[in-house]
Every structure is written in structure tokens, then in C-alpha cells.
Fold these 2 entries.
Entry 1:
Amino acid sequence: MTKTQQVRLAERPTGLPTADTWTVTTTELPELGAGEILVKISFISLDPAMRGWLNDVRSYLPPVGIGEVMRALDIATVIESTHPDFAVGDTVSGTFGVTEYAISNGRGVQRVDLSLAPGPTWLGALGIPGMTAYFGLLEVGKLRAGDTVLVSAAAGAVGSVAGQIAKAEGATVIGIAGGAEKCRMLTEELGFDAAIDYRAGDVLRQLRTVAPDGIDLYFDNVGGEILDAALANLRRGARIVLCGAISAYNEQKPPPGPSRYMSLLVFRASMTGFVVFDYADRYPEAGARLAQWLADGRLQTREHIVEGDVSQFGDTLNMLFSGANTGKLVLAI
Ligand code: NAP
């Protein structure tokens, strides 16, 4: 019998999750049945979408139920197996949750190749954030060489990859991030052409300075006032990729809609939302290209690893909402 600590949803938060949102329990897992694996988790992915999964609303995935183990994608090692496709010692990714150990029937579990990249990168640039950046830019945003591309939350997991893909594909890339250090990293380390510190104020003025002719593509991770600034500086035929709106995830009332939306009409522009899971059958294609960019140095990965145990999950998750992370936020247990 294997004992495991797990983080469960205790109550639905209003606003930012607090200590009362979570409860840490210890559970004994049953013996393995036929066709199952027992995994030991090493890395837990922290994702802004987790905040949405705590709300009892209709969405692209059902909400996490009160008392359930919090849903999370993990990197883990197989330590027992009765499954024909997985051997003891395999490193895998799967939605095992916020837990130390888990039993799985193997559905949705992928083997990961640590010779290509370390575990946390498989939750970041080579994982869902990388896929999101790839399909969001190339399929939804229809990126073209020569485009002027604006990316928000640009120092984060999705944004940092999106900006680098856009550079690799011949675009001029402007990133928006919170703070001078993140902006320095974007331009000096990740190859962005310009960076805007939204905490320094007047994003629209800063944007008009670095992109006086407007932008062709806005990869929006944050919504709110930054989306309005982007709308106010479009070029004809611009595309806005609605990837996320983290500025609103902890709001208790729906925020006001974009006040500049008439720019879509004036500039014959479009704004399209997407969910990365819709491209699941094409992940291998994206993975191969991202791995190639990684190998030839056009893609650099950034991971922000917090060392600890599952009980630190709640505090670590909130780092996403204060901007305390740079790159993919991961809890190493
Ligand atoms: P991340 O960017 O690594 O972390 C979140 C970042 O958001 C923070 O570091 C912070 O950076 C920024 N932020 C937080 N609150 C903000 C606010 N009020 N205003 C402006 N910026 C704020 O997270 P991620 O995993 O890469 O996710 C980025 C976005 O992609 C999220 O909106 C997420 O929901 C979305 N997403 C969508 C899909 C999809 O299928 N559509 C899939 C994955 C992720 P600063 O320091 O720069 O503020």
C-alpha cells in the first residue's frame, strides 16, 4: 500500500484563492489492478486555467468538485506497472493531480524523453504552453513573416514561447511584461525587438512609441486595459488571438468588455478565441518543430521551479497572479 499526500478543493474561492480554498489529506492508494501504473510525481504544473476550474460554471472542462483532488498536469516516474505500454522507470506526463503518488490506467499518459529536455521543460516549452503558443500564433493568428506582433504576459510560459516562435518565423516582436527585469530579459536574452513594462504606466503611449504603424497580430494572455491598448493600435487586417485574460481570473464580477472593440470594424480586424486541446491530434507536429527550434538555439526555455511539497501548491499557484514567476511555473516535490 502506498500513502500519498494530496491537495483537495475545500471550498470555492471568491477572488484570489486563500488557505481556506485547499485541504491537504493523506490517503492510502489501493493495490494496482490489471493494466494500471503507479507513478511517483516529481513536477506539478501551475496554470492560470486552474483558477477557472475552481468556479462552478460551464466551461471547456468540468469544474473540480468540492473534496476532489485538484486537477494538475504532472511529470512522474512509473514505479509499478501492470500496463503493457509502460515499464518501471519510465518518465511520463499525465493529469495525475496535486498528489505525491497516483494510480492511472494510462489514458492520456505520455512517455517523455529526458534526453531531449528535462522534466520541467515538458510542462513548459515542450508541453501545453508550447503547444498553445504554436497553434495560437500559427493557426489562430495566421502569423506571416514581416508581421508586427504584440504578446502580453510575454515573460510567462506561453508568452515567452510565442514571442520566440514569432521571431523564428520572421516577425518583429514586442512583449508586454510586468517590471524592468522581465523586460530586460525579453530583449536581451530572448530576442524580442522591444518590451513594454505595463507597470510603468500608459501602455498605449509606450506601444505607439515602439509600433508607430500599428500591430498586425496581438497574442492576448491578459485581457483588460492592455487589450484595449492593443485594440487602439491595430493595423488594417489585424488578428487578435484570445488565448487568455488572466487580469480577470480573480475578479468577482465580469469586467467591462473591451471599450475599443469598434477598432475591429475600422481596421477590418478579427479576434478569435481558442482552446489548445482542440489541436491535440497535431501535438506531435508542434513538438517536433519546437524541439528543432530548441536544438538550433532559436527557442530558449525559462522555468521557474519552486522546491517543496504538495502543501505549497496554493501559495505557488498565487504566484501566477502576482507575476512572481518568470517562465513556466513548476512545483518540484
Ligand atoms: P504565465 O504567463 O507563465 O503566468 C502568468 C503571468 O501573467 C504572470 O507571470 C504575470 O506576468 C501575468 N499577469 C498576472 N496578472 C496580470 C494582470 N492583472 N495584468 C497583466 N499581466 C498579469 O502563465 P501561462 O501558463 O503562460 O498562461 C498565460 C495565459 O495563457 C493565461 O491567460 C492562460 O489562461 C492562457 N492559456 C490559454 C490556453 C488556451 O488553450 N487558450 C492554454 C494555456 C494557457 P507579469 O509579471 O508580466 O504581470
Entry 2:
Amino acid sequence: MQVLDMRTLRIFYTHKHLFNLAVPKSLSIPRFSRYLHSTFPLRCAEPSETTPHVWSIYGRAPDRLPSQTVSSSSDGNEGAKRPNDRNRKKGKGKVSWVCAECGNSDGQWWGSCRACNAVGTMTRFSEGNSLVSVSEAASGSWLPQQAGELRPLRLTDVNRGINRLDWRISLYGPFGAEVSRVLGGGLVPGSLVLVGGDPGVGKSTLLLQIAALIAEGNDLGRPAPVVYVSGEESVEQIGNRADRLRIGAEELFLYSSTDVEDILAKLQPLSPRVLIVDSIQTVYLKGVIGSAGGISQVKECTSALLHFAKKTNIPVLLIGHVTKSGEIAGPRVLEHIVDVVLYMEGEKCSSHRLLRAAKNRFGSTDELGVLEMSQSGLQAVSNPSEMFLSEQCTDSEYLAGLAVAVIMDGSRAFLIEIQALCASGSTATRQVNGIQASRADMIIAVLMKQAGLKIQENAIFLNVVSGVTLTETAGDLAVAAAICSSFLEFPIPNSIAFIGEVGLGGELRTVPRIEKRVGTVAKLGYKQCIVPKSAEKSLGSQVFEGMEVLGCRNLKEVINNVFRSH
Ligand code: TYD
Ligand code: MG
């Protein structure tokens, strides 16, 4: 089609209401029954000719839940196959374009999303003959209340009789405590939790262990049924893993299926306490066009499971695969639908796994769970604050150039080791690893100018142990101390930790959450903690047993106190 024709067509469809063209009945597009593929036909009233019956989790939404008829294409070739208008003429129903990034829906194709400006993310949908209330229908048989029975309730009536302590499903033991911490104090009944993470990071292991904990029913005092559904592995494979994890919970049920309707139907006789689905990208709903893992399937399946969770009060835990860029695969709107989004992180070479909440409707997103992948599954780390300290820490009394900094991740404090090496006689180069180069340059310049350290002729190497990246200015003082220690060849006793930001005048500035940082250092048995003088105020008269907190105004004072014999 000529470009001119395309433009004319577009103008025509944008302003067609102005033309008021009457199409003769004999020429009108034949309508297919939109319930042709309904997964729950008996519950649906006969479709009216004029009103499309589309239901989403938010209620009736004729324009919001189109079914995908053409697979997503984000390769930028959309412009070439843009003529959706032609399809309308052929009677394939209204075509709309939905952004895979933010879920914005548009009546026509644009090169980029007009809501979030993402390029090449507009995916074509057609509200064809299969617009069905699939998500509601799939969980329909569980619905205890009809919409008409619901009415607004007084807050005091809602809260009356609910024991806040018993409200959440608690997870027992040290492993359970770490997971509970990230969830905000336990699993909330009726919540939908999405767990994302790289392949092989341990998502299936994590959820199988959670399933076992709840199935053992320590919080209830008796076992409770939990169903673990996998669309990726057979029950034998899951059983094998459970065996390796030494899980023997009587009430843990395994099921291998990818059909959401079938899963929900099979659950009913068990009335489980928790449902686990591994993974959302492998399950599908029959009424929705598109293969499992596609945008509309993922969205509709999540909606169906949300309905199920809200209506039955059974919490559902979903596993979500992540894309190359680290986001959960599928439409971004998925993260808006669910109540909690957890990410499991871990380095390939390290056995530590971090569990973070990216979204939590029932708690803080500041919490961090620290776990370790061992031979027998995931275990809580006994002292996470120490996990980034090198093993030779006890010998560091004899090594110059090591200093301990305290960094925060969420609400948790971690001690990390900074290493510096000043080599005289070689070319005056600088190599930094794990520290921002400009920050390191600034600290070196301040040490030269404000503390009188003659390091300009030296090659300086800086490194943060365990591959951690120092992003906080709270580590400045430890970097400066490590450089001094190496240059002066004066080992810093391994019982000293450093907290503070270094200013251009060589002055020490306080940092956020100083009490938490100093408290963590004290708990780990350190003898002395060097902090900025101004931080002493916020610490008040707090006493840290067995540890001296030394406030210093500037770098010179630190050098005089720590490297006293020089
Ligand atoms: P898995 O839970 O299958 O990861 P995901 O579901 O995120 O893809 O975990 C896979 C990795 O975990 C695998 O590489 C082996 C390791 N692993 C252990 O080290 N110990 C164990 O006890 C288990 C069950 C797994
Ligand atoms: Mg898995």
C-alpha cells in the first residue's frame, strides 16, 4: 500500500466518527461467538450483540484485556506490517497495540510507546472472537461470594477479631526467619508473591524448602497441605530434589501440570494452605490465544491466580524467569498485579544468595535475606555481617594496607575489607577495583594535600575484597586508612573498623544510619570504631559493650590516633 493510502486510512479511522458511515447489514462482518473458546462457558450469560463481555481482575473492562492473535514482535519491523486497518476490514475485530513494557494500550501503531517512550515494544492484539472471562472463570468454582453480596465495611469491623500475631503464616527456623524477614514477617494469606532470579540461582530450591516448612506445620502445631506445581519438572524430578534436601513432609503434594484450570481444579479436594507454581512462564489458560510464556498468557494466568488467591485466601507463590536485562520476563504490568516481588541474587562463583523485596504490599522493601547454597539446599548464614570479610582477617595484624569499612544494604550492615598497595619506585599509576575511580582519586588527593602524605611518586592499587562494589561514601575513611597503612607500612590492628565520609578539606563527615553501623561493629567483637566527631552526637550516650567509639574531626586526627608511633 502506498504511503499516501496508509495516511488516508489512518486519518479515516482516527476520525471515522465524523464520517458517520452506515454499513449495510448485509455487508456487515459476521460475528463469531466470543465465547467459542470459553474455559467456563456455563457461567457466562449469552453474549449480547452490542456489548463485549470482557472481565479483568478490576471488573468489566472492554478495552483492557484483548487477546493476542499475533505474536509479539519487537524487532522494529512493525512499521512494515502496520496495516491493522486492513484486518479490521476483513472482520478480525478491533485491533489494538499494547506496550510490553508498561501495558499502555493504543488504538494504532506508533514507533514508540506514547506513555513510556519505549521503542519497539508495541505488540499487536486483536479483540477477536475469543474475548473470554478466562481469568475469572478459571478460579470461578472457588468463588465464595457473588459480587452483589459485597459491601463496604467499617475499618474497625474489618480489624475486629483479627489477631495480628496469627494473621501471617510464619516460617520456622533460621532459614524461615530469613525468608520471613524479606516478606515483612511471614506469608500473608491470600497474597500473590512473585519470585524472580537468574536461571540456576536457586528459585525452585527456595520455594520447595518454603513449601516443606509450611507443610510441616510447626506454626499450627500440625501439618498442613501445601501443593507444589511444576510446569518445568516431573514429579519424580522434584521428588529427587526433595530427597536431596532431606524433605519428608507428609503433607507436601507435588503436581506436574501447565494448565491453570486443571491445576486449580485438582487443588480443590486438598484445600491447601499454600500453592506454589514453578513457573508462570510455563503455565497457560485454554481460553487465551498465544503460547505459554507470551505476554497475554503470562498476564491472564497471573490474573487467574490472583483471583484464586484473593477469593480463597490461599497464598500463591510464583516463580518468574528473568530476561537478559534482569527483569522478570513478560509484561511489566505483571509486577503491578502481584502483591510482592522478590528477587534472588547471587554470583556464579559465590554460594551466597541474597533475597530482596522489589515490591511488598505488606512490608518494607528495605529488608534483605542472606542465604547460602549448600549441599543440602539453602541455609541461613549465621553471621551475615561478616560474610564479606576475608578469611585471613585474623592475620591482618601483620599485613599493612587493610582496613575494614561498614556499608549498608537495605536495613542490614555489612563489614567489608578494603585493600591498598602503595608501591614506590614504579610508575605512578592508579588501579582501582570495586571503588569509583574518581572517588579514589579524590581521597588520594586529600591525603596528599590535607594530611601531608607524600604518595605522589607511588603506584597505588585499591581493591575491595569479595568482589563487592563500594557505592557509599561511608567507606571513604577506610579507603584513606588502608592507603596510609600501606604507605607507612603500619598494619592496622584487625580489631578496628572505620566509618565516615572524607571531605575535600580532609574533614570527616557523618553518614546515615551511624548507630546501626556502629552497633554491628560492636556485635562482631571489634575493640575500636573510628567515626566522625559529628557522629558522636547522634550516637548520644549509647554504650557499646567492649568497644571504644573514637570520634575524629579530620584525617590528621585519625592518622595520629591509629598510626601513633609514626
Ligand atoms: P534451582 O533451584 O534449580 O535453580 P532455579 O530454579 O533458579 O533455576 O537450583 C539450581 C542450582 O542449585 C543448581 O545449579 C545446583 C544448586 N543446588 C545446590 O547447590 N544444592 C542443592 O541442595 C540444590 C537442590 C541445588
Ligand atoms: Mg527452577
